[in-house]
């Protein structure tokens, strides 16, 4: 039977195989590591792709690697161990830092990189992606004991974001 | 007397505060669950939420309960 831990193992294999330079679990499944679980249907993974020549960034190498491993892709998700995984290339400097400063956590004996709660909240508050649900999740993170509220506020100021 | 509705009883501020504290307590208990328990809860939530979502809108291809174990 597929397991969530095995899906995380695959993420680490992708990094070891240089399919991605680095990664960090983001979105609702990252919340699971810091606060209470919320419903979600996919696993968001922020990634740095290996540097390519030219300005056009492509996820094709990820999908091709996954297909060779027997993980099919559909609608921009890769089905890994029964989990639809969406790979999100870092879209700005905040996302860059979220990956670079991700916490290494452990799930069932598997090391996994997870976006820290302060960065997770800040990403939820980015103007291009704000929705009521995302604002609520940012607010829940602010109340979580795992979040350093002062660090979060510094981050929001530095990136010009509003709580 | 008919036509003269009685004022509806309202919860006291103390009761509302107690209810809020109860909600906070449950939230803290969920936060303290093991990661495996939390992932198990996500899988349970998927099974509960998907039929409700499906009544509101067409589901995306990936919006299915994960065929995985915690």
Task: Report on the architecture of this protein.
The complex is a heterodimer of chains A (163) and B (70). Chain A has helices at residues 4-16, 27-34, 60-68, 93-100, 117-124, 132-143, 149-158, and strands spanning 22-26, 43-48, 73-74, 77-80, 83-89, 103-107, 110-114. In chain A, a hairpin with a 2-residue loop joins strand 3 (73-74) and strand 4. Chain A has 163 residues and is of the alpha+beta class. In chain A, helix 4 (93-100) runs antiparallel to helix 5 (117-124) and helix 5 (117-124) runs antiparallel to helix 6 (132-143). Chain B is mainly α. Helix content of chain B is 59%, strand content 0%. Chain B has two helices and no strands. The longest helix of chain B is centred in the middle third of the chain and has 22 residues, at 35-56. The model of chain B has no long low-confidence stretch (mean pLDDT 86). Chains A and B meet through helix 1, helix 2 and strand 5 of A and helix 1 and helix 2 of B.
Short note summarizing the structure:
With 163 residues, chain A is an alpha+beta fold.
